[in-house]
């Protein structure tokens, strides 16, 4: 049973380890120490819902109706282009993190952005619902495997959100924030390009 959970944990962790739009957003929130707990919970609970759906067999539904993924791909790409542009303009302005717009201070706007970065990304459905769901179905106990993958999401996002504060001395320098914003913009745009032309 522990080996099945460990396999699910390893798969779940490996799928979310790469830097992506959602991870970049959580990292930035962690560095700013704004709304960290609500945002990491939004990410981890979203993953839990999607993984549970995959284990319950909804991966077949996503595969049967590929148009769902296509719609998400276009909406997600458009959102990422706009969000990347905002990060790029922020870098060009060179304002420090504490001088950013009111939308980054507003809890509900931050949660809305986090939800869009999560649920408008078609890769999240392919990774969690389809891939984790199909591998869970092949294990001796699918729900134990799924629980391992879910726990990986909680460990990862809490580590990312709260571990970011250890980098805060680096980000006392406004230049570091500019570099981070440029990196975030490039990540957003590269993911948007991949969604439109790489799938």
Describe the structure.
The chain is mostly helical and 199 residues long. 79% of the residues lie in helices and 0% in strands. The protein has one domain. It has helices spanning 2-17, 21-32, 36-55, 59-64, 66-93, 107-119, 122-138, 142-163, 174-197. It is globular and about 55 Å long. The N and C termini lie far apart (36 Å).
The fraction of residues assigned to DSSP E strands is under 5%
As a whole number of angstroms, the C-alpha radius of gyration is 17 Å
Low-confidence stretches: none
Order of helices and strands: HHHHHHHHH
Rounded to the nearest angstrom, the distance between the terminal CA atoms is: 36 Å
Topology overview:
Blueprint: H1 2-17, H2 21-32, H3 36-55, H4 59-64, H5 66-93, H6 107-119, H7 122-138, H8 142-163, H9 174-197
From the structure above, extract its key features.
199 residues, mainly alpha, 9 helices
Task: Briefly say what this structure is.
The chain has 199 residues and is mainly α.
């Amino acid at each position: 049973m522990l080996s099945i959970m460990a396999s699910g944990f390893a798969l779940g962790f490996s799928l979310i380890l790469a830097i992506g739009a959602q991870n970049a957003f959580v990292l930035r929130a962690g560095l700013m120490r704004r709304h960290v707990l609500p945002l990491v919970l939004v990410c981890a609970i979203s993953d839990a819902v999607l993984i549970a759906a995959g284990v319950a067999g909804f991966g077949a539904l996503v595969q049967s109706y590929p148009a769902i993924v296509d719609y998400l791909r276009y909406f997600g790409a458009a959102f990422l282009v706009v969000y990347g542009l905002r990060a790029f303009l922020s870098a060009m302005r060179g304002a420090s993190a504490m001088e950013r717009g009111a939308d980054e201070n507003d809890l509900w706007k931050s949660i809305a952005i986090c939800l869009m970065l999560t649920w408008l990304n078609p890769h999240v459905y392919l990774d969690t619902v389809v891939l984790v769901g199909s591998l869970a179905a092949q294990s001796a106990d699918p729900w134990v495997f799924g629980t391992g993958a879910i726990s990986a999401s909680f460990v990862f996002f809490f580590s990312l959100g709260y571990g970011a504060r250890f980098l805060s001395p680096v980000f006392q320098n406004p230049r570091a924030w500019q570099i981070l914003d440029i990196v975030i913009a490039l990540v957003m745009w590269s993911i948007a390009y991949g969604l439109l032309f790489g799938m």
